[in-house]
Amino acid sequence: MPDVAASPISPTLTDAPARPYVVFEDGRDGRTLLFSEPEEIIVAREPREAKDAFARMEAATKRGLYLAGYASYELGYALEPKFWTQTTPRSRTPLLLFGAFRAPQPWTLPPADAPAPYIPLTPAWSQAEYAERFQACRDYIFAGDVYQINLTFPLYGRYEGDPLALYRGLRKRQPVAYGGVVALGEETVVSLSPEVFFEAQGRSIRARPMKGTAQRGVMPTEDMARAQYLVEDEKSRAENLMIVDLLRNDLSRLAEVGSVKVTDLFTVQTYPTLHQMTSGIEARLRDDVTLADLFTGLFPCGSVTGAPKIRAMEIIRDLECAPRGVYCGSLGLIAPDGDIRFNVAIRTLTLFPDHELVCNVGSAVVADSRAREEYEECLIKARFLTGTSERGA
């Protein structure tokens, strides 16, 4: 996060900001920042607008402004020339939406008085409907088109309260690595992501893909055994390694020759409802890499597409029932000194003005995946919102 001097009195929830605003939290160092009263809002709704939006973002940082906001998953189609002559999904959210702000304020968000409310969710696909798409993924894999496809679907619910209150309640249930609330447009995005996409300081860049999931155990011994099983599970390790290789390849196109390194493999991180496997990659960016280059080379994160990335994105476009929107995109901030931090927008909700809430979930399909297990894994990932504990709830 950018280095922000502490103010004598940090704002609290009782000083809730007026829209438009962005609140970002880094759960690793305990810092929360409020971006309010933007000097400019930069938006791209059509693919042809992305180039100008990136130019405006670069210009804003050169004027000493901070950028905070999000990029939707469908921006990836707009940045890849192969898709320019093809029909691609049209998201309900902008492809790119950032505010340009003066220095952010430290933000004190008090602990929630109560857990988030129970929000019933209706999956877009039944298990049978999921199994049909799952089989299509397996057919592509066995035909040699891809090694892995991240298949996702939305769940729908209703919420009429304050997004910051919802974030506070969900945060009590699901601690975040990097999340917050983006309220720059008509929709509001609430993200409690455990996955960092990339961080850059100067020319140094780090990525930490997350792939491989195990449900938490009830008793400590069972819980430890499940975490250890995840470490040793060949399927999870293969999924993780595929994405590490994909991101190494993406970074190599932007980095100095020989600078891309894997710092650790198959590290298990534990959250209230599940264990997840991560790995670390770092590199040194070339001096001529721009913000547009960075997104064109890396976005969207390979952990939410599959491998090879472009072919996986084609299959996702054809099989999924709705655009992903901000889900599987990225929330982040860019400081005028060049420091950048973005998450992978999983565990991410979008709230629309008509009070509709959309929560997407997904999992990686590989050659030895099983439809029922993958569908249940998807629903497990929605528990941060529903608060349920029964398997498959």
Structure summary:
This protein is of the alpha+beta class and 393 residues long. It has helices at 50-62, 75-79, 127-142, 163-173, 220-232, 234-252, 291-298, 309-319, 371-381, 383-386; strands at 21-26, 31-36, 40-44, 66-71, 96-101, 105-106, 122-123, 148-158, 178-183, 188-193, 196-201, 204-207, 210-215, 261-270, 274-284, 306-307, 330-334, 340-343, 348-351, 356-365.
Describe the secondary structure blueprint for this structure.
Blueprint: E1 21-26, E2 31-36, E3 40-44, H1 50-62, E4 66-71, H2 75-79, E5 96-101, E6 105-106, E7 122-123, H3 127-142, E8 148-158, H4 163-173, E9 178-183, E10 188-193, E11 196-201, E12 204-207, E13 210-215, H5 220-232, H6 234-252, E14 261-270, E15 274-284, H7 291-298, E16 306-307, H8 309-319, E17 330-334, E18 340-343, E19 348-351, E20 356-365, H9 371-381, H10 383-386
Antiparallel strand pairs: 1-2, 1-9, 2-6, 3-5, 4-5, 4-17, 7-8, 8-16, 8-20, 9-10, 10-19, 11-12, 11-18, 12-15, 13-15, 14-15, 17-18, 19-20
InterPro entries: ADC_synth_comp_1 (IPR005802), ADC_synthase (IPR005801), Anth_synth_I-like (IPR019999), Chorismate_C (IPR015890)
Domain Chorismate-utilising enzyme C-terminal: 127-381
Protein name: Aminodeoxychorismate synthase component I
